[in-house]
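ok so heres the complex, two chains, lmk if somethin looks off
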Amino acid sequence: MQGTRERSIWAWGWRDKFPDDAARTGIAQLVRAMVPTLAPAMRALPPEDPAVPAPGVPMPDELAAFATQDPRSRATRSRGRAFPDLVAGFAGDYAGAPDLVATPRDGAEVARVLEVCAARGWACVPFGGGTSVVGGVDAALARGDRGAVVSLDLNKLAGICELDMTSRLARIGAGTLGPALEAELETHGLTLRHYPQSFEFSTLGGWLATRAGGHYATGPTRIDELTHALSMVTPRGLLETHRHPGSGAGPEAARLVLGSEGALGVITEAWMRVVPRPRWRATASVAFKDFTAGVTAARALAQSGLAPSNARLLDANEARMHRVRFDGTSVLLIGFESADHPLGAWLARAVELASDHGGVVVSGPTERDDHDPHAGTREGAGAAWRQAFFDAPYLQSSLLSIGVLSDTFETACTWSQFPELHARVVTAVQRALDEECGGGVVSCRFTHLYPDGPAPYYTFVGALRAGGELAQWRAIKHAASDALAAAGGTITHHHAVGRTHRPWYDRERPALFGDALRAIKRELDPRSICNPGVLVA
Amino acid sequence: MQGTRERSIWAWGWRDKFPDDAARTGIAQLVRAMVPTLAPAMRALPPEDPAVPAPGVPMPDELAAFATQDPRSRATRSRGRAFPDLVAGFAGDYAGAPDLVATPRDGAEVARVLEVCAARGWACVPFGGGTSVVGGVDAALARGDRGAVVSLDLNKLAGICELDMTSRLARIGAGTLGPALEAELETHGLTLRHYPQSFEFSTLGGWLATRAGGHYATGPTRIDELTHALSMVTPRGLLETHRHPGSGAGPEAARLVLGSEGALGVITEAWMRVVPRPRWRATASVAFKDFTAGVTAARALAQSGLAPSNARLLDANEARMHRVRFDGTSVLLIGFESADHPLGAWLARAVELASDHGGVVVSGPTERDDHDPHAGTREGAGAAWRQAFFDAPYLQSSLLSIGVLSDTFETACTWSQFPELHARVVTAVQRALDEECGGGVVSCRFTHLYPDGPAPYYTFVGALRAGGELAQWRAIKHAASDALAAAGGTITHHHAVGRTHRPWYDRERPALFGDALRAIKRELDPRSICNPGVLVA
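and the predicted structre for the whole thing:
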């Protein structure tokens, strides 16, 4: 599928999905209508076939069988899809492209790439789908004073290698893209049900390396919790964790690999917990006159033990942007799903809780049974919402191309901390938007709910100043990150640390844990070739 | 409470709860009736006031304000409550007692103990409730070639320090014993609901250090999952993890501390996720003609998404020993509980699932609402079961005193692995019992269920040979552990590694993760004074 359709070299996603001039004009009009302070203006698009500097080193013989120095291959592995990446791509800047792209076909070839890099002191950047929004796959930043950068693309380590239907476990190659994974699992009636927003273009290995947040709004949502065991090739050899559903034998080895962001080695495959595809789905939406009441209802739901699969709270701006509500109310979307049982009792109690906290039901409650011939199409509204969710990153690229800055950031904090954190963040970001963009909009939704706190997700939009894009973005990003840190929120709930979040992560991380990570890095990656600049050193 | 009642110096639990001669005679008769091959014989009990060697070092001035060299204090911190510990205690052997017992009153005094130990090269053994069944607090084994051993007792760092009702979080001292913790939480209508079998005599810090398995049979059961943040004093200083409900910022720091078993430092306090005390409880028991059918039903329940709080499968021997069933059937005990909602729909589906797999309901389904004045006493059967559960360790001491060997071990494996693992383990243990004890009984229950596999828990009973107790136990323990390892099970699901499980843990642990742990140990505990012999080196 990937082979027959080409990804944009600079923008999010498929090249043929980038809106044409007429569509971009339409987006510009829509933006102007929604945010009167913005004055979108069409910009000329960058070339899809940019100039790429020659590689700084020749191809090593040991890698020739599965590596290339082709300019386009190198250009497309230059960076991820953070806002600064889009700006650089828009400017046609590929000065920092990797010197070669290796595409190993098995763990032994992964080890060989690391050997070559260790022997020559080259940096190795593991590359899955290239969707990092935190500079996690930035070849230029990885280079430092190293002689070369090798992009280690995992796309050949893809697909389901082994299936244990009884234990509901699948051994999956780290380079498997979301859609291919779900398509292969579906033939067995299974699903991983892990849908980060990058789903279409990100890989299992990337999800594991960055501790991605997935589909479930409550309960087991982080990829960590769906992981049974995993394998990571380090410069010192293979680290393969013991297979068990649960163990109390020492600190958990898998938890050291999860979130290591390529800095300790290359995740090559994992045994993942899969589930039968859900049959029953029960949903409702509840509106709240003010966001604070919605927050209280969300908390009650998170602490109820009902464990809805979906529980998203949108503030009034988010509700408007998502075309859910236009009357200034906040909305709590509630969903349950099961392959085992109908969910009427679950949803009824969830709706009752939301109503007890001042909510008004504006949609549902409805339950659908996929085995019911009168239930209509199996997907329906769910599929529409999912498509809109996956299309959001496309919009960011389109907006950039009409001179509009848009980006998101996320955190998690306790329920007690949230009111102050929210006030600080909104104030800081609005002030930065006013200063940098002459105004703008900041909105908030909860993407995940825990009994002890929410994961608030912020979106901001403002006007870009030609030539000042990066400075504008940096000022706003710093203001947001400083506000998060000051209010006690984590610097990231599911976007990872990469290189962008390092200054705040380094302060958030206990100093002695930083020392421990450095000690591990020295042990597993003594030449410090694995994704330099990420996590440690 | 602890102050007015004395713990036995050698046996499990309260000294006044140890059965008198008449009661022990009764136990002997009962054992003979249940296992005809056993011939229990009363043994003389050891002195409760044994000889303790003089300390090998004088009291350092820096610790004098909060440490003692009193013989009894030192004797009671000599070891935990593993079978070899009971044998040593029964023999009155306190040759390895620690040289002094420090009872720091705050984190600064904990740090001072570590400073003194580091400066002098002494071993420091953190001591919570002293209930380790794996040699985790063994002063003699910690000593090695070190000049002295300091037992660092955490009992002064106890109680709830801070409460966040909104976020349902409590900051709790690591030395807090289970009953004191629950009593204090109850005054706020809260509970941690973490009930390891050692609950009465173990501490929060011990649960955290050993990744204890708790009350819930499915869902969040391990103490890890109830932990919001924690503090550990290391020889290099304080490691305090960031407070958040969930974060994707790097590998999770708390997960390095959890399971570190005192080898990296001393856990002093933690923010724990607490919940309102349950109001509704729904229960049922389902019998199966054969264990295999029960296993299949347990698997269906674990994979249903219903997340019962209790789901224990007892094989026929366990059912008999627990006085639940005497007809050779296996039994699945199912329980749900909630502070938020009645559980009829949940239990009905669970019972239906069990019935679909050949089960016959033998008790319930019943649901109790604590707010219903006609519901009877709030505790009832639950309290009786809980008491029997907590009393089981007492029985082990009593059996030893009448010449009967009894012990337990546990593991976790995938559902696919279980049939072969079970066959191997039962065969190996039965053969060892036959060889070492001239026969005996081995039984199995599932204490915890995961979607990808069960946590089988084995109990074995045989006749002791006077003077050969340790050799007998070792032979059986080795046979069991080798069988677990050969079949792919983890060496421990919730008893921890300590010193007993080290040989198997060292093979189970990925070699490179072992290297990583050693690197961390060198970083945080450069003089290697923290619980030497545990986890690494």
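quick notes: Chain B touches chain A through 97 residues (CB under 8 Å). thats all i got rn
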